[in-house]
Amino acid sequence: MKKRLIKILAWIIGLPLLAVALLAAYIAIFGFEDLINAGPDRASLSDEEAQIEVTTIAGGLNHPWSLAFLPDGRMLVTERIGQMRIITTNGQVSKPIEGLPEVGAKGQGGLMDVILDPAFDTNNMIYFSYAESDPQEEAKASTAVARARLIFTSQTTAKLDDVEVIFRQVPKVEGWGHFGSRLIIDDDGYLFITLGERFDYKERAQDLDTTLGKIVRIHRDGTVPADNPFVDVEGVLPEIWSYGHRNIQGADLHPVSRELWIHEHGARGGDELNLIGAGKNYGWPVITLGRDYTFAKIGEGTHKEGMEQPLYAWDPSIAPSGMTFLKYDHFGWQGDILIGSLAHKRVIHLRVVSDDVVEETHLLGDRGKRIRDVREGPDGTVYVLTDDKNGEIWRVTKAP
Predict the structure, then answer these.
(1) Burial (Cβ within 10 Å: 0-12, 13-18, ≥19) of residue 19
(2) Residue 370 sits in which domain range?
(3) Which residue is catalytic, options 63, 178, 263, 362?
(4) Is 265 known to be catalytic?
(5) Residue 159 domain-assigned?
(6) What's the pTM value of the predicted model, to 2 decimals?
(7) Which residue(s) pair with 386 in the sheet?
(8) What is the per-residue pLDDT across 157-200, written as a single tens digit (0 to 9) for each?
């Protein structure tokens, strides 16, 4: 009887220890953003909700991450598990496209962004980012970017040819969090790649001999432009465009100024919207508006000479995902920003005047779905990707 009682007590005591162990494992893989940053909303669902109509275009997608529109209106969609599909305008989902490289689909890693080359009509070139494991040490990984030709074998089947890796984040490190990663090609044809600092390596966001926590700028063949800000600085990687970033999962060009805007995850609070300038330092982890997940102070404070301040910030965090500037006036919101929120499971609408955010409202929060990406369609309507094993694509239009 005594032995049985001891076993029961040991089992009861072991339950909280098991919970702590499971929590530690979750944090090691995914980070804290989605677990902790689901505090009270800054803005409730807005009256704009009555002005929109939502239609589900497609479903059954495994954690869809990004969407690119093909010239004929079909969509190229990535799934985090390492698959890419074509979705027709009437919602038919293709089989996975053949020819992708091996993708490290674990934790926050996987197949991420996809964009078309500006000359896609003539060269069929696409670019995509993904987590790439170290072939010698599988526990290590980093973000990689490849380009390839998308060859259609029918209306709903395709393959990738001439796949070439044009960028690899260095160094590869252990862990499966904070890969970034968004791809933007500007009006001059340069490719910007946003990169996370890989969570456990935040101090390296300030080091200029690594691309952890950086935005890089390269030519579309992977070579480095001669006018990059650090191209002639000894000991600095020449592809670096800006640094001091945490985990950038949203980026777009301002529709008028054509400057690069991004957002990045904070820790407990401190998600930031930033206007990016060549060679600038955005502070992480020396300055931040957030605190550590233990509530401890991070770095030196909120301001430091030589480090940029955000245009806008969130506390508590929203865990931001994809973002888009609205270039058309379908909703009467031309020039505004839409951002997906993983934590609050809604779309954030920021009204923008020049370089100032003047109002924040929330949309689609009654649907209970984590939002992974938000894209403006070629007709000015909005497409939203939900982040789960049965991920959906929603088309958002102005209500009749």
Answers:
(1) exposed
(2) 49-398
(3) 178
(4) no
(5) yes
(6) 0.90
(7) 371
(8) 899 999 999 999 999 999 999 999 999 999 999 999 999 999 99
